[in-house]
Amino acid sequence: MEAYYLLLLFGVTSAAFYLTATRGLGARRYALRPALFRMLECVGLAIVLGAVNVAVGFLLVLALRRLTGSFVSLYLNTDGTLLVLSLLQAVVLQWWMRDTEGDGDG
Amino acid sequence: MVIAVTRLRADYAKGKQEGTHPRGVVRVAARAIGATGLAAFALLAFTPLAAALHGGFSGAALPRADAIVVLGSGVMPEGELTDNSLRRTVHGIRLFRQGLAPRIVLLGPEYNGVVEAEVRARYAADLGVPADALIVEPGGQSTRDEAHRVFARLGRGRAATIILVTGLHHMPRARRVFEREGMVVAAAPVLEESLRPEQPQARLALARAVAQEALARAYYRISGDF
Q1: Domain ranges, residue A69
Q2: Better pLDDT: B53 or B173
Q3: Could you report the per-residue pLDDT of B114-156, keeping only the tens digit for each?
Q4: Which residues contact B200 (CB under 8 A, 6 or more apart)?
Q5: pLDDT of amino acid B134
Q6: Which H or E run includes B46?
Q7: ipTM of this model?
Q8: Residue from A59, A64, A3 nearest B204 by CA
Q9: Which residues lie closer than 8 Å to B101 by C-beta, 6 or more apart?
Q10: How far off is chain B from A76, nearest CA to CA, in Å?
Q11: Among B28, B50, B57, B167, which is least packed, fewest CB within 10 Å?
């Protein structure tokens, strides 16, 4: 029931945002699909960067254990905050790549 | 979903045709991964998939044993046990009060100056466990470490039979590690997440717990402990 409620809420607010964007903010309908694909791009980059962060963190903890001889928990790398930080990295990387396109390959 | 995949194929073909820069390849790959990730998110949050991935929970009858062993789970800086630690502690004390073993081993290392095993021991004493039945072991930092220490505390050279108390997700790995150490283990798992969650957030928490334990098992397999 809770799941359906959230989906309904998401649907209603998305429809409201669509109307507000097209009527109030002058957004073009044809630009919605590319925007959705850019969102997918950002999510994909966040997943990849998140996996890289976890893998590097894992190796870092093992190295710290070996170097210091003290116990450092591997669970440090499964903190949900790392997902948010990975998303920030993804947003920056995505916009960086986009802004670089105008400058050619240099 | 079908539309998204069709569109991704078209993008890929377009990129190939134009002989695009590696950035283009990254973009197409990121879209595919993003679409897959969002589909997985939707399935885990809005369907009972996480519960299906977990399997089930069946409480078997427990035999008498040499000791009840309660694995560590965490303590707050304020000196209170975390929810999971409290569940495990209470479960262990209940089994002790049922007369299933003459001793109870309470584990849990120090976090932020508070020793989990000692906090648990105070609970146990307050709930009527006699001091001579309590074994407090604050040294174990990992499941493997806990198994070494319990084996040492229960007496080397003989196969101690134990009732192992830990979280349901953690039990298969913990049981294997304790058995490899030379103990005979009866499992008394504690349910730490609902296996029939209705809220998306609870479903995602269950999926996270399953994934985290899968990673831990993979690590233990690689290091030869599972």
Answers
A1: 30-101
A2: B173
A3: 999 999 999 999 999 999 999 999 988 999 999 999 999 887 6
A4: A2, A3, A6, B45, B46
A5: 96
A6: helix B22-46
A7: 0.86
A8: A3
A9: B64, B65, B66, B67, B68, B95, B162, B163
A10: 12
A11: B57
* CB-CB under 8 Å, A100 with B198: no
The band of B85, judged by pLDDT with boundaries at 50, 70 and 90, is: very high
Q: Please say whether the structural domain B67-187 has been given the CATH code 3.40.50.620.
A: yes
Chain A CB contacts of B31 under 8 Å are 37, 40-41, 44
Task: For residue A73, list chain B residues with Cβ-Cβ distance below 8 A.
Answer: 141
Q: Is residue A55 included in any domain, yes or no? A: yes
Interface contact flag, A2 B142, Cβ < 8 Å: no
SS3 at position B39: helix
The alpha-carbon radius of gyration of chain A (Å, integer) is: 20
The first and second tokens of residue A41, run together, are 């791009």
The model's pTM is: 0.81
The answer to whether the CB atoms of B34 and A100 lie below 8 A apart is no
CA–CA dist B77, B111 (Å, integer): 7
